[in-house]
User: Fold these one by one.
Assistant:
Number 1:
Amino acid sequence: MQRSIRDAGWRFDNTYVRLPDALYERVRPTAVRSPGLVVLNRPLAADLGLDAESLHEAGAAMFAGNESPPGAEPIAQAYAGHQFGHFTNLGDGRAILLGEHLTPDGRRLDIQLKGSGRTRYSRNGDGRAALGPMLREYIISEGMHALGIPTTRSLAVAATGETVLRETPLAGAVLTRVAGSHIRVGTFQFAAAMGRRDLPDALLHHAIARHAPEAAAADDPAVAFLDAVVEHQAGLIAAWMLVGFVHGVMNTDNMAVSGETIDYGPCAFLDAYDPATVFSSIDRQGRYAFGNQPAIAHWNLARLAECLLPLAKGHEEAALTAIRGVLDTFPERFQRHHLAGARAKLGLATEDEGDQRLYSDLLDRMRETGADFTATFASLAALAEPAALPAAADVDPRVRSWHQAWLARLAGEPGPRAAAVARMRRANPVVIPRNHRVEEALAAADAGDLAVLERLLAVLREPFQETKDNESYRAGPPPGCGGYRTFCGT
Ligand code: AMP
Ligand code: MG
């Protein structure tokens, strides 16, 4: 029997379309010439309670935007945002939210098509996306998920059979993105900028229900919601910093209140450690450099706090004190998450006041010696014995003295050394989506060969285990690769 998209198990229950209609436009995806399934995320389909076989057989038309799954109520969401510090009105210019799918275990997840045609918010854009950038988002978001980092997910990429015009003509594609929600700091900025009290109010209630249900019963839900978002972001940015992830465009429209990593544009992972690393070709000032990410997150949260201030209870002064009090906790919360993660990377289970210094000293040595971030941490597990570091003179004396300090610290840990080693192996990935590997997979896909991409995805699914399959994926780029650059023409 022929399977249909109706058999896939979609359970839409759409609540965002019940909000005031100033917050979105009802709009259908624009049908494409020739839908074709490029990749389907079978494990994610299963996690969503969807039948992967039906999606595989009959999903291309849906994933390309030609056919609507039962229960979908498509909209483009309005939002604003500070882009590189400048306020602009934006919105889904090339994305369409099909609706909210309920998983068998009760999660409510946005199903969104990206690259699905023009909307009211498209401005001069064509509403479309190219195959390379959509596959890139698929690879990196799934890699982030496997690393245990909160992120939007990628269910599928469909080819459109059409060409998109960028600097050159490129193959068109649509990504199906799955997210806790697509509510951004910029969504609150849009609601606040409209000058209508009902919009931020409705949005706040909606966002609380989805991302901070405990805030509904708090004395001051707006303050409690800010508290939850600050906490989510503190944990998220710490997680990025602990794997060497550079988001690249941390504009307020690219920061989700759910605490998920969102909008994989010019993002990339560090190879050699340098906090000044910028990959994005359009970030000329280095605003979104690796080491700036915590400060930028705090700045973005201040923009959210401004939007929530009028919704907080009490007189102006009291509300300001409450909101400010929560906002000001970001640096300390980030630091707490980051230090806990740093300890795990060093194999430490107990706390010592010198730990922060021990970690930052290692980063300093890595910067001085141009060491690879991921490979250095992955190597620690094998270096946890005094005899492990070669006696040879070619070990930098600064590295040797750090190693001695770290061994002395490990010696003070209760429990066997094997337990510390196991902690390191759980915290330090051996493979990440390395830029040269991602590029290699995209180039092959562009030439019609998806096997390289499939192998990379399989390897990235198990990032903490040294396996035979991932052996050749662990190393940094071959010499001569030069500074990696990412482009925003996504
Ligand atoms: P981004 O840089 O991907 O975060 O996008 C910033 C804004 O530009 C968002 O409002 C997008 O919807 C919009 N945008 C990006 N690319 C296109 C496109 N090809 N067509 C229409 N809008 C776009
Ligand atoms: Mg964006």
Note: The radius of gyration is 23 Å.
Number 2:
Amino acid sequence: MIPKSHPRYESLMKRERIIEGFKKGIVAHAGLIAHGRGETFDYLIGERSENFALRAEEAAVARLFLAENPVISVNGNVTALAAPDVIQFARALNTKIEVNLFYRTEERIRKIVNEFEKLGASILGAEPDARIPNLEHARALCTREGIYSADVVLVPLEDGDRTKALKDMGKFVITIDLNPLSRTAQTADITIVDELTRAIKNMIKFADGMNEERARRVLEEYDNRDILAQSLNHIKNRLEMLAYHFSNSSGLKT
Ligand code: PTJ
């Protein structure tokens, strides 16, 4: 049991959720590693939703709002960390949810579908009837009703190959990825460099005030290359500032 007073309470609770998800058979082995990589980047960013993240989150909501067949793709980590918020967000914007696994096993698919059903949401993906072209193995499997025919897909914590394959299908791809250097972050149309649970909560708020006029204006002003550059500059400046404090004072506040 982690006491609420622990200075790293939020981060430790997320870690607990990932471990619980792993024990339940929802999170893949590699999901533990992916989470650790995310934690590292979040530490560098400062564990807050910075302006570059908020702008990308608003643009993502705008694009999903204007989409004809928007789909949120969920995997083991996303389910363990944020299933209730994903459901709330999907309802707010009327999007479908589809389970799509990198390390696909039928057992994990079933467990993830059950997890969402327990929370009152039925999701696509248990019975795939289409394939993402140019992707080998079972990770290409998807549904015609969902990802295959979607015009906009939100793929949080996604593998670079699949992001590229979705782009090659002509889809508008939005990702949430704490690593601005990942291939997915570099390939997506909108890259949210933020922690998944913070990002989804912010996006639920942005969805509340969205309308067509606002959505179009937000997207006109949005430039993903600039957002990626801002995220890297933020990390660089923050490290410079911390290094300065290290060398000029005895105390360090991260
Ligand atoms: O459940 P499966 O089988 O679909 O597998 C899911 C994982 C995440 C294991 C799989 O897609 C994978 O291996 O992903 P990668 O290639 O490790 O990419 C995950 C990316 O998400 C990395 O760039 C991490 O930095 C980032 N990441 C990890 N945790 C978070 C995160 N980004 C935002 N929020 C997080 N909580």
Note: The first strand starts at residue 70 and ends at 74.
